[in-house]
């Protein structure tokens, strides 16, 4: 079919078709997140390469079927701490056409460092999973199953590369949420970064109450403080790397705590117990359409030939709904 665009128009992106061989995945950093991703992809039949500065992590990954090498190609995943992200590829040989993504919990700083160097080859990502444990001993191939995986679509992101990274996320069992780096950082400040600060505050305040309070602590205290069992360096890098949105989100929490307690309890209960279904939608491979899906609270679950299939919450107001695409 002839191109219908006028003279001088940019050519339409050439998307990889679903029947094309999936490229290999190279994982840099084989701790909990990177090692779990590598193990999940090996189980899914994807060829996986990997590297870690820790020999024990390399040995553990090799035992799970990962090819240990400094030469990486296909989709290269940076699964290293935020403080190490800018130099994560130092000493490695990366195929010039490789797509590079990451698993960092903050996106704008990585976009400004890694993204500035790689341009449209970089696709920022953040799987919303993990535990307070770390290192290769915490690897779990099922870690990503059912998890949301934020995947950034900036104005210069190359859509075919975004799609290849989305396929990696879905192969690991995750559902992909299209976002921009700014939208991601604002959102995770509210639901993740503030949670770590609140957990720290709750633990510190309980300690001030004395040994009896800590001796009586049970399920609600454990649930409320679990995440602050994470590596303090990781938490500091996360909240300081996203300081502005985290401060704004924390201010909203302060405002909520100033409300009458009965109202606060009722409203909070309504949020976490709200039941809603999912409505299946098909979305074209177009940046605006994909971002609309993420902004509606939905996610991508399957790759089709000219579309992706996903869902949006069923209880959204009619004017906010995406159209069904049969």
What's this entry about, in short?
The protein has 326 residues and is α/β, with parallel strands linked by helices.
Write up this protein.
By secondary structure, this protein is an alpha/beta fold. It has helices at 32-43, 55-63, 108-118, 159-171, 181-209, 211-216, 219-225, 232-241, 243-257, 261-273, 287-295, and strands at residues 25-28, 48-51, 67-68, 71-72, 75-78, 93-94, 99-102, 122-123, 125-127, 148-152, 175-179, 278-284, 299-303, 307-313. Strands 3-2-1-5-7-8 form a six-stranded parallel β-sheet, with helices on both faces. A three-stranded mixed β-sheet has the order 9-10-11. The chain has a three-stranded antiparallel β-sheet with strand order 12-14-13. The chain is globular. It starts with 24 loop residues before the first strand and ends in a 13-residue tail after the last strand.
Observed structural traits:
alpha/beta, 17% strand, 326 residues, six-stranded parallel β-sheet
What is the overall shape?
globular
What's the end-to-end separation, in Å? 22 Å
Unreliable spans are 1-5, 317-321
Main sheet?
6 strands, parallel
Strand content: 15-25%
């Amino acid at each position: 079919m002839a191109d219908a665009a006028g003279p001088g128009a940019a050519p339409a992106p050439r998307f990889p078709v679903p029947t094309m061989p999936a490229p290999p995945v190279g994982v840099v950093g084989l701790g909990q997140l990177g090692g779990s991703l590598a193990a999940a992809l090996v189980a899914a039949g994807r060829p996986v390469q990997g590297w870690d500065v820790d020999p024990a992590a390399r040995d553990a990954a090799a035992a799970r079927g990962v090819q240990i090498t400094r030469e990486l190609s296909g989709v290269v995943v940076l699964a290293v701490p935020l403080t190490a992200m800018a130099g994560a590829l130092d000493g490695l040989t990366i195929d010039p056409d490789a797509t590079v993504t990451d698993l960092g919990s903050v996106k704008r700083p990585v976009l400004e460092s890694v993204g500035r160097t790689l341009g449209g080859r970089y696709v920022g990502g953040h799987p919303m999973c993990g535990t307070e444990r770390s290192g290769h001993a915490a690897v779990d191939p099922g870690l990503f199953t059912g998890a949301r995986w934020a995947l950034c679509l900036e104005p210069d992101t190359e859509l075919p590369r975004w799609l290849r990274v989305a396929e990696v996320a879905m192969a690991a069992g995750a559902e992909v949420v299209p976002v921009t780096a700014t939208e991601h950082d604002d959102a995770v400040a509210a639901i993740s970064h503030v949670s770590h600060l609140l957990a720290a505050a709750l633990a510190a305040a309980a300690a001030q109450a004395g040994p009896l309070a800590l001796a009586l602590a049970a399920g609600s205290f454990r649930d409320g403080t679990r995440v602050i069992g994470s590596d303090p360096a990781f938490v500091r890098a996360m909240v300081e790397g996203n300081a502005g949105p985290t401060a704004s989100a924390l201010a909203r929490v302060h405002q909520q705590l100033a409300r009458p307690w009965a109202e606060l309890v009722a409203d909070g209960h309504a949020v976490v117990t709200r039941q809603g279904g999912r409505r299946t939608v098909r979305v074209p491979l177009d940046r605006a359409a994909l971002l609309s899906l993420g902004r509606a609270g939905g996610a991508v679950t399957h790759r089709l030939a000219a579309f992706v299939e996903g869902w949006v919450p069923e209880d959204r107001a009619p004017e906010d709904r995406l159209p069904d695409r049969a």
